[in-house]
Design a protein that fits this description.
Strand content: 5-15%
CATH topology: Glutaredoxin
Strand order of the largest sheet: 2-1-3-4
CATH class: Alpha Beta
Shape: globular
Order of helices and strands: EHEHEEH
Structural class: alpha+beta
Number of helices: 3
Oligomer: single chain
Radius of gyration: 14 Å
Distance between the termini: 31 Å
Number of domains: 1
Length: 116
């Protein structure tokens, strides 16, 4: 991995059976935060995972049990968040797997507003 955290999001408007396309509420929350704090775009690497599982790129990094999005894989040189965020690392890659934890971490690391 490079010297940046890696954020995985699901695409907006993914199919999941008949009917209108779907969006992931948590991914949309993070995408909204990125739009409100565009300086983050140069601080992290953003990748889009496809909706159907398995999601091979994510599985290769954090294991099959942790394919949910949004998912932020922390750069090895990043400090661990101190705001009560649960950091997972079953494969050695530290990551956050909730919109709230990611928002709290970005607040600590980059000074963005924090989740309420």
């Amino acid at each position: 991995m490079a010297n940046r955290d890696i954020l995985f999001l699901l695409p907006h408007g993914f199919p999941d059976g008949p009917g209108a396309p779907y969006y992931c509420p948590d991914c949309t929350q993070i995408a909204g935060l990125l739009r409100l704090s565009p300086e983050l775009m140069s601080q992290i690497e953003i990748r889009h995972a496809q909706f159907p599982r398995p999601r091979p790129e994510i599985v290769a990094l954090v294991g099959e049990a942790h394919q949910s999005c949004p998912l932020l894989i922390l750069d090895p040189s990043s400090l661990a968040p101190s705001g009560g965020c649960e950091v997972h690392s079953p494969t050695g890659h530290r990551f956050l797997d909730s919109a709230s934890a990611i928002g709290t971490y970005w607040s600590e690391r980059f000074g963005t507003p924090r989740p309420h």
